[in-house]
Amino acid sequence: MAASSVVSPPDGQAGPEAAPAAAAGEARPDGSPRRARRRQARAGLLFAAPMLLLFVVFRFGPVLGALFLSLTDYRLSGEWTFVGVENYTRLADDDLFLESLTVTLLYVVIFVPLTVLMSLGTAMMLHRVVWRRGLFRGIFFLPYVTSIVLAAVLWKWIYDAEDGLINGLLKLASLGPVDFLGRSELVLPSIALTSAWKGFGYSMLILLAGLQAIPRSYTEAAMIDGAGPWRRFRHITLPLLRPVLFFVLVIETITAFQVFDAMYVMTGGGPVRSSYSLVYMLYDSGFKFFDFGYASAIGLVLFAIVLVISLVQRRFLGRED
Q1: pTM (2 decimals)?
Q2: Mean pLDDT of the chain
Q3: Longest Cα–Cα distance in the chain
Q4: pLDDT in tens, 123-142
Q5: Contacts of 94 (CB under 8 A, 6+ apart)
């Protein structure tokens, strides 16, 4: 006779149907997984606390200090008087501020596209290079690690109207000398070219890393479909490179708004203040006339302008499809 037998577990042991319940009971004994995550978060915060403290003190501290100074008439002696928004109303009525803002905006319009195009073009060229790629990267990156003062002095000699390299070549071609730094319409493009030559290496490396992260299978498939170089660049490279381009555009825009060293060394703000930027005005107000409240107001207005432009760039370039 065939009979089915059920084997009961020994005394003190649960059957198979009780295993899930036991496992579920062991998963959260008194909320231990949640407590473990909290312990890990506290430990991570403890390790990061020194750097967070330094960041708050040396980043947010100066910002709050500048905000306080912008609302006061603070002098070098340490005496100060609360004046509210008087420094900001002075800026609105200051023709020199409007003039320096115009110069800064014109410089940004020239410098940012020039630097991005130089960085992108060089990155795409290096992306195709196989032989001695590291050597060429180092050569193009070398100006970035040099001093901006050294680069400004070098290019000031190159632009010199009498003994400069460019005018020497123009003389060989029987062309008259051009005073690049003495003419109002040429001084900003000349300084922008100097700054772009000095700083494009950093953005070049970032864009090169972005190009190398694009799968080659995409471009190979486009080539099989008959897409030319321009179509591959427009429909494959640019869309996939957009986050990197957005980052490069933001940092180069911030760099352009902070221009000061090259103008200070090469032109001193001239000719006739045609290279007198907002940061130059901030420097004169704070360290030449010791009007620290007014200088702080200039710095905060500059910060607000850069913030708004960065948000606009994020709106049109940084959004995800």
Answers
A1: 0.82
A2: 85
A3: 120
A4: 998 888 767 777 888 888 99
A5: none
